[in-house]
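> agent: user asked for a holo structure of the chain below bound to 2-acetamido-2-deoxy-beta-D-glucopyranose. Plan: (1) validate sequence alphabet, (2) canonicalize SMILES, (3) run complex prediction with ligand conditioning, (4) return tokens. Step 1... ok. Step 2... ok. Step 3 dispatched.
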Amino acid sequence: MAGSAVLLISLLSAVAPLPSEALNVRGHLLKSKTFRSPPILLGPGSVSNKYHHDVDFPRGHLAVKSFDAEVVDENGVPVPLHETYLHHWVAEPYYALKNSQSPDTQNLPKGMLKRNDGVCKTTLGQYFGLGSETRHTATWVPDPYGIEIGNEDKAPEGYEEKWLLNIHAIDTRGVVDKPSCTECKCDFYNVTIDEYGRTISKNYTGGLFCCYDQTQCRVKEGFNGEVRKLFLQYTVTWLDWTDAVVPVKIYIFDVTDTAMLDGTPEHSCKVEYQVEECSAENRANNECIHTKTARAALPRGGDIVFSVAHQHSGGVGASLHGQDGRLLCESLPTYGTGKEAGNEANYIVGMSTCYPKPGSIKVSDGEVLTIVSNYSSDRQHTGVMGLVYILVAEPQQPTPAPSLCFSFPVPWCLPAWMSSNM
Ligand SMILES: *[C@@H]1O[C@H](CO)[C@@H](O)[C@H](O)[C@H]1NC(C)=O
Ligand SMILES: *[C@@H]1O[C@H](CO)[C@@H](O)[C@H](O)[C@H]1NC(C)=O
Ligand SMILES: *[C@@H]1O[C@H](CO)[C@@H](O)[C@H](O)[C@H]1NC(C)=O
């Protein structure tokens, strides 16, 4: 049973290109465990978008090295995207109040999200998250880096760290038009009022407001399909935390964040946007590419050690650039070519990632980065996304050089500044 298997793999067997990397991980055990989300119930055309609190996750003070996921059925068989479209999943730690029943804690919040390091203020606070590309997108955090979780010293008094999982899946078996359902076109869902009872503006033709939990996309007349019980199956690998692991910060940039271009102080990460079909003139010139750009300042600099973009079907690539225009990462989609899970035609089944040579891609405190997201505008696309996720290792405080000490003829030590030059 995969859910209970704990694999212990010695990192020593991994080929480390640098001696310092081998040193940093020497003797540490890479652990891995596979979990399943609570069940996702889906009938033809239906949508599930649920938030699951306190999901299974490795406990303790750890360095997370990867988080890989996919949708499976009750028998653990992978479900293809043309049956169940995985719109997105996100995993985020939060602080939960320990004694929520106690009278002393009545006025305290029951939970607080432990957001990533930025830069969006209200949305996109996750530590991990992907969509249809999840089966073939690397999430491995290279050595000697790790994402620190479960440090009790950092939890607010009276709170403990738990994990939240949001899974948005759309069952497209038997629907009238799969792309319209996966792009959440309001007409196909017959939705005019959003989840919170607000009237949806006429010019909003599609996106998350129209495919919330329990909405229903139009199904072909006479189509019958049973309700299925599915799961997000996710595998986490980690190391126990030690000083040899270099912590990384997580930043997510959103191409819809126009705050800097508009000159407004607050970030506004709208998450989704719309791509209009190209004009006849552009089409005649073979110029049906829609390019969207945004700028945002990186709060703290360091070395970029990993980077990946997230796009929806129609995406043709996204990139991140430094203030001087240099390319920090380009992430390109792979489209499937067949029917089987992991290779579904017309869907993005993977995004390429960037693993810069350690120390080769530096960004500075406050540097203004540019995010570029390209989509094909051969046809209109609604509810698309252009995110860039990066991991940044901040410059390490040099550890004070150990002083060289002697016990003869009397106990004495060389001052650190001298021994550090030896
Ligand atoms: C769409 O919604 C309207 C009003 O809510 C309802 O009268 C109509 O029957 C619905 N159409 C379909 C196809 O479900
Ligand atoms: C729709 O119109 C409103 C008001 O004119 C505008 O603020 C909004 O950006 C428009 N939305 C889209 C998706 O074009
Ligand atoms: C995005 O499109 C622009 C303009 O067509 C092009 O210069 C750039 O290389 C493209 N970038 C990616 C990542 O596809």
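> agent: step 4 complete. Summary for user: The pocket of 2-acetamido-2-deoxy-beta-D-glucopyranose (ligand 2) is lined by residues 201, 203-204, 274 (CB under 6 Å). The chain has one domain: 21-393.
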